[in-house]
Amino acid sequence: MTDPTDTARPNGAGPAPDPRDLLLDAMLMHVPFDGWGPASVKAAIADTGIDPALARALFPRGGLDMAIAFHDRTDARLAVELRAADLSAMRMRERIAHAVKLRLELAGDKECVRRAAALFALPTHAVDGARLIWRTADTIWTALGDASDDINWYSKRSILSGVYGATVLYWLGDDTPDCAPTWEFLDRRIGDVMQFEKVKAKANGNSVFRTVFAGPLWALGRVRAPVRVNDDLPGRVNPGNGSAAAG
């Protein structure tokens, strides 16, 4: 009996398309009209001719898992493009702005993103949504070469998660052809972060501040980023296997 997940093609034609990608691509044709719900899932299955049992095995939670796959696939494409680009002439704030802008451009149909944002805004899916934003922030920092392994690993991703999330919401409401207002909003948010970093640097250089907060600063200094243990969890490089973090 043939394995329905087998991607090998006869006569040396090479690997068949991943059924996950086939289903997701078909799904994206229906999401702008019917959202990430059962109607779109059913239509995607019908369009691809994939066995419904296989579709359920690939995406157990239906549209929710497909929305997550859509987000993660775009993150993967972002990582590839950022690593291939020469950003050496850019300052760090420019690299971050470029990465966020590229992430939104790679997302494709804005209506699919809008529908996904509405899905993850539901209380039952809010944790999934927060996890995805964190993974995007981790993807960006990792692709830009972030080597931090202390509390800065967390703070960088937390701050960028806030910047990215706010920019997505602004972008969804921006109907201008070139999205110039969105990119200006992004620059302002990054500017706010840079001002915060300047204040933090001054505080860290203040002897009175360091004396008063010696205990908390010592505790924070002992915080380490998690070591990545598999391909699904973001984390710093594991010296034991040389793997790099990814979203």
CATH architecture of the domain at 92-247: Orthogonal Bundle
How far from one another are the termini? Answer: 37 Å
How much of the polypeptide forms β-strand, as a percent range? under 5%
Q: Using only CA atoms, what is the Rg?
A: 21 Å
Q: Report the principal-axis shape.
A: globular
Structure report:
- By secondary structure, this protein is mainly α.
- It is 64% helix and 0% strand.
- The chain contains twelve helices and no strands.
- Helix 1 (19-28) crosses helix 3 (38-48), helix 5 crosses helix 6 (92-106) and helix 9 runs antiparallel to helix 10 (180-204).
- The longest helix is centred in the C-terminal third of the chain and has 25 residues, at 180-204.
- It is globular, with a radius of gyration of 21 Å.
Sum this structure up briefly.
With 247 residues, the chain is mostly helical. The chain has twelve helices and no strands. The longest helix has 25 residues, at 180-204.
Question: What is the topology?
Answer:
Elements: H1 19-28, H2 31-34, H3 38-48, H4 52-58, H5 63-84, H6 92-106, H7 110-120, H8 126-143, H9 151-172, H10 180-204, H11 207-212, H12 214-221
What keyword list fits this structure?
12 helices, 64% helix, 247 residues, mainly alpha, disordered N terminus
